[in-house]
Design goal:
The complex is a heterodimer.
Chain A: H1 3-14, H2 19-31, H3 33-54, H4 70-91, E1 113-123, E2 133-134, E3 137-150, E4 155-168, E5 171-182, E6 191-193, E7 198-201, E8 205-211, E9 216-223, E10 226-229, E11 236-240, E12 245-249, E13 252-256, H5 270-283, E14 288-292, E15 325-326, E16 338-341, E17 344-347, E18 354-357, E19 364-369, E20 375-384, E21 391-397, E22 407-411, E23 416-419, E24 429-430, E25 440-449, E26 452-459, E27 462-469, E28 477-481, E29 485-486, E30 491-492, E31 498-506, H6 512-522
Helix pairs in contact in A: 1-2, 1-3, 2-3
Chain B: H1 6-28, H2 34-51, H3 58-80, H4 90-101, H5 104-112, H6 114-118, H7 123-133, H8 139-145, H9 150-171
Helix pairs in contact in B: 1-2, 1-3, 1-5, 2-3, 3-4, 8-9
The chains are: A alpha+beta, B mainly alpha.
Chain lengths: ~525, ~180
């Protein structure tokens, strides 16, 4: 059969016939049995592809050998329902208006993948996920980052612009963009298909980028192994292992040096990016006396404030190394930078968010709060492992006795309070709510009015203790974060066995709502997906 | 309407489920678009449901019997839609569907080779083909996302379909009919 005739029939299938084509196809099919045979084959294939493209996917457990009648059983079940509905309509003498009962249009209720986090993500309006579900189909991420979790627990991090389609639980097409795939054993064989190659996971983490304009595809293996396979022949082009890379330039495999693709976030890190936005906003709050987001001295994620801040007194030459300094990022600082002693950098609330660990009995961060205040609020994200000391200091003035000093601490019973030498009686309200081994937001609000000075503590925004005393100016002076130094005994005994991830001190008495909002903003959780434009 | 007795309802459903793909493919040979296919499939199923108790040898004849009903429904549908533009002449559709009736027994086997043949083209290409057939996608949008013109994408799909048709014909020939 002539190729031109085959193409004519194919144009009919695609619905692309011109006026001349209509005349030609009628003549062809009328006169040629061979053409009619080909026509029947073409329509058969078209029908089968339609069926296949609109069928729900089998569950993982049955993916290797799905029941051969499964799709049709679904259709049959629909038919039963339709006929029952029809019979009921007839029995009630209603006019029958028709009821579709084809297998088209049935969709799987559980999505193949779930959008579990996103950051500044913008999808094109025609190719966006419905709610947070991603079933098979084409998606176009115009900008930002997304994190997907497949039903088989594969994690995909992607940076826009990216065009991709989800085929099933083990296959995705990447037309354009960058992907980090973190593949557990349950998703072994997960494959990223690009124009130039298929990248087949053999239990690993890998990075793939596809650039259709430059006709470049790149894979970097971060752990485990990846097979690079020729898309047409399925021939194995290369087996890549840990820290090996391959580049396909116009479909030709080229050697490539491994590059750590740090620009693409790791699972969970989108929360850190979102927090950085929050931290930038925080730093610009002029009511902040001190703000320690626990970023490294050289960190450029937050603008370095004008150099109105200095190091605390007694600061030695050796400690003038960036390693020892902890930057106060407040834009209107009234406290020095911090000096880290023994306190060590540790992991924070999210991946690549850092904290300070005070588990060593002598670990602390020294700094100085200048001046006196009528109001003050302290806030910190802490995670305590255990409480070997009677008291665990979150922030305490050096020594104890000078009016205006503050001691913000918890006890072994889980009580949280902020005392001053003049306010050291038993709290009028007291709840045990400092729990170990989880991130909690602790705050202390101190306020001096005509009737006296009050300190109110909260855990995760909930009130836990109130202490009252005579009118006292708040003058913390030299303080230690994560420990306490007793001038007389010259020993440390109140170190915080755990970590502090973020610390802020305001010159005002925050409202309960503001504190609750800070807790909500900093809680380690993904945002709720509402809608993306 | 006289629906079949309840014990034969199960038989009807089972046979309908089994033969639906090939009946749908048969209907597709007589009309051009999927909306028409769906409408004719519905009418065919209703008629078959009503007349199922008349069928003497359901196990062996169901597929062909449904195609006979479907053929009648195709021709009826074309008459009722006469005001709409029909691409193929009625006489040609009669001829094609009459010839297609003879394919009934082997159509199922032919369709069963699809997965095998899809496995012979690259995964990216088979994915692209299925994506193009996904009712929620448009060719224009897919072409745009691939940075191709719709014409170029049509060409590519055409080549892929041709490859599949050749493969399926080689695996199981309809020409035996």
């Amino acid at each position: 059969m002539k190729q031109a005739d085959q193409y004519l029939i194919d144009r009919y299938i695609q619905g692309n016939l011109s006026e001349e084509d209509i005349v030609a196809i009628n003549q062809l099919l009328d006169s040629s049995r061979e053409a009619r045979d080909y026509f029947r084959k073409a329509t058969l294939l078209d029908s089968a592809l339609h069926e296949k493209a609109s069928l729900p996917l089998p569950e993982i457990a049955s993916r290797n050998q799905p029941h051969p009648l499964l799709p049709w059983m679904v259709a049959a079940a629909c038919l039963v329902l339709a006929l029952i509905a029809w019979s009921k309509k007839l029995s009630h003498n209603h006019e029958y208006h028709g009821q579709k009962f084809t297998s088209n249009g049935h969709h799987q209720t559980q999505p193949i993948a779930q959008l579990i986090d996103f950051y500044k993500a913008e999808f094109s309006s025609n190719h966006a996920p419905k709610h947070s579900a991603l079933d098979k189909g084409l998606y176009e991420l115009k900008s930002g980052f997304i994190e997907l979790q497949y039903k088989n627990n594969a994690r995909i991090l992607m940076e826009g612009p990216a065009t991709f389609s989800i085929v099933d639980e083990l296959n995705m097409n990447l037309t354009q963009g960058k992907v980090r795939a973190v593949i557990p054993q349950s998703a072994h064989g997960f494959t990223v298909h690009t124009e130039d190659a298929d990248f087949v996971d053999l239990g690993t983490e890998f990075f793939v980028s596809a650039n259709p304009v430059k006709k470049l595809s790149q894979v970097d293996v971060l752990s485990g192994e990846v097979n690079v396979v020729e898309p047409g022949s399925q021939e194995l082009l290369k087996n890549l292992k840990y820290r090996q890379s391959a580049r396909l330039d116009s479909g030709i495999l080229k050697k490539s040096a491994f590059v750590q693709r740090t620009q693409l976030p790791i699972p969970g890190q989108l929360s850190t990016l979102r927090w950085l936005d929050h931290a930038r906003k925080m730093a610009s709050d002029s009511s902040l006396i001190a703000y320690f987001p626990m970023l490294r001295w050289e960190d450029e994620n937050i603008d370095t404030p004008a150099d109105k801040t200095c190091m605390p007194k007694g600061f030695t030459e050796k400690e003038n190394l960036n390693w020892y300094r902890l930057r106060n990022f407040a834009s209107n600082p009234r406290a020095s930078h911090g000096v880290r002693s023994i306190a060590s950098w540790s992991s924070g609330r999210w991946p690549k968010k850092y904290s300070q660990d005070f588990s060593n009995p002598k670990a602390r961060i020294d700094f100085e709060i200048y001046g006196s205040f009528k109001e003050m609020t302290l806030g910190a994200w802490i995670n305590i492992n255990q409480q070997p000391n009677e008291l665990t200091s979150i922030l305490s003035s050096d020594g104890w006795g000078t009016p205006g000093q503050i001691h913000f601490k918890s006890n072994r019973a889980g009580g949280l309070h902020c005392s001053m030498p003049s306010i050291n009686s038993l709290p009028s309200e007291y709840a045990s709510s400092v729990t170990n081994n989880r991130w909690i937001f602790v705050s202390a609000q101190i306020q001096t009015t005509e009737s006296g000075t009050t300190s109110l503590c909260r855990v995760n925004g909930e009130k836990t203790s109130i202490m009252k005393g005579p009118i006292t100016k708040i003058e913390p002076g030299k303080v230690k974060m994560g420990n306490w130094y007793d001038n007389n005994l010259n020993k440390f005994e109140r170190n915080l066995c755990g970590k502090i991830d973020e610390f802020m001190i305001w010159d005002r008495y925050l409202s309960a709502k503001e504190i609750k909002d800070f807790f909500e903003a900093g809680t380690p959780k993904a945002p709720t997906f509402v809608a993306l434009k | 309407m006289t629906p079949p007795p309840s014990d034969s309802s199960e038989d009807f459903l089972r046979l309908h489920a089994k033969h639906e793909p090939q009946i749908r493919a048969f209907v597709r040979s007589g009309v051009q678009n999927n909306e028409s296919v769906a409408e004719i499939m519905q009418e065919t199923s209703i008629v078959a449901w009503q007349k199922f108790s008349d069928l003497q040898k359901p196990e062996s004849d169901f597929g062909k019997w449904m195609c006979v009903i479907a053929r009648y429904e195709i021709l009826k549908y074309r008459q009722t839609k006469a005001r709409d533009r029909m691409i193929l002449d009625q006489s040609i559709v009669e001829k094609i569907t009459a010839e297609a009736l003879d394919d009934s027994n082997i159509r199922e086997k032919y369709l069963s080779t699809l997965d095998q043949c899809l496995g012979k083209i690259s995964k990216a290409n088979s994915n692209l083909l299925l994506l193009a057939y996904d009712p929620s996608q448009s060719i224009k949008a897919i072409a745009k996302s691939l940075r191709k013109t719709p014409d170029a994408l049509y060409q590519k799909l055409r080549r892929l379909r041709l490859k599949l048709t050749e493969c399926m014909s080689a695996e199981h020939s309809l020409d035996q009919s």
